[in-house]
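thought: user wants a sequence for this fold. calling inverse folding tool.
action: design(structure=
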């Protein structure tokens, strides 16, 4: 996933977001279809119930909007490491939904993690005040909106993935995004042909992103607890930090680094708190 931040940002620096999406998601569909037919995943389509089709459509639509907002934030924010750090606020939305809709209770460790994560996100964002004259770094709002939608789709997907293969969800999301990107390119009158360097970055990044990270992410949700998946996913920020420096020569300022570390520590505490709570419940 860390490669997605680097190579998509490299491509977005030279092409329009709609052009990027057309090739990124189009190639993602190609990689997914190769995997799809190589492992004969098409045989399971007939076994999907009408109710599961509705769930698949809902999750795909949510993922489509969340993915668009994510890439919009990458297109807007100069340093992809900042995007990665701010993306660690996603567990905050999951917890909030659990409180509001599932009436869940949370322990001290989880609330401490929530407070630290939120503090880190604010610390990263408010550093843009002197540059932009506003509370948040321009583009941060897209990350928060994307995080909310992704968290909602994750909660739905966690319950529904046992009814259909993860590759179906990944392919459906890519198909919707590709259609929207294609319509946008036509509507805006943008050329289909793009620079070879951008195409190379998109080709490699789409292999890592829409294909590998998409399928592996859904398989992780299917086979392990969401808390453990979140813990592993939060570490990507460190890889993005190093990659952004090596590839673009950009580095967040001191307070953004501190805020980024806060978000990672906060996510780890939230996840540890969830695991502790589940262990206590199982013991009783």
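)
observation: tool returned 284 residues.
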């Amino acid at each position: 996933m860390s490669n997605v931040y680097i190579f998509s940002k490299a491509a977005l620096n030279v092409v329009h977001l709609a052009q990027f999406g057309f090739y990124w998601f189009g190639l993602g569909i190609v990689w997914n279809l190769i995997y799809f037919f190589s492992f004969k995943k098409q045989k399971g389509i007939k076994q999907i119930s009408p109710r599961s089709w509705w769930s698949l459509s809902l999750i795909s639509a949510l993922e489509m909007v969340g993915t668009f907002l994510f890439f919009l934030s990458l297109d807007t924010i100069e340093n992809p490491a900042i995007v990665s750090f701010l993306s660690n606020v996603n567990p905050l939305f999951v917890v909030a939904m659990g409180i509001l809709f599932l009436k869940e209770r949370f322990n001290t460790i989880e609330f401490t993690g929530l407070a630290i994560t939120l503090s880190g996100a604010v610390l990263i964002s408010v550093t843009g005040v002197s540059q932009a004259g506003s509370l948040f770094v321009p583009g941060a709002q897209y990350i928060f909106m994307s995080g909310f939608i992704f968290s909602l789709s994750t909660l739905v997907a966690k319950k529904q993935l046992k009814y259909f293969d993860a590759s179906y969800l990944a392919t459906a999301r890519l198909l919707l995004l590709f259609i929207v990107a294609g319509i946008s390119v036509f509507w805006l009158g943008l050329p289909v042909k793009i620079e070879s360097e951008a195409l190379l970055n998109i080709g490699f990044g789409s292999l890592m992103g829409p294909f590998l990270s998409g399928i592996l992410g859904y398989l992780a949700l299917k086979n392990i607890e969401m808390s453990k998946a979140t813990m592993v996913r939060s570490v990507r920020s460190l890889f993005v930090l190093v990659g952004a420096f090596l590839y673009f020569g950009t580095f967040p300022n001191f307070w953004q680094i501190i805020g980024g570390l806060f978000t990672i520590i906060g996510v780890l505490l939230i996840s540890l708190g969830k695991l502790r709570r589940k262990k206590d419940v199982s013991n009783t």
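thought: summarizing for user.
answer: Here is the designed sequence. The mean pLDDT is 80.
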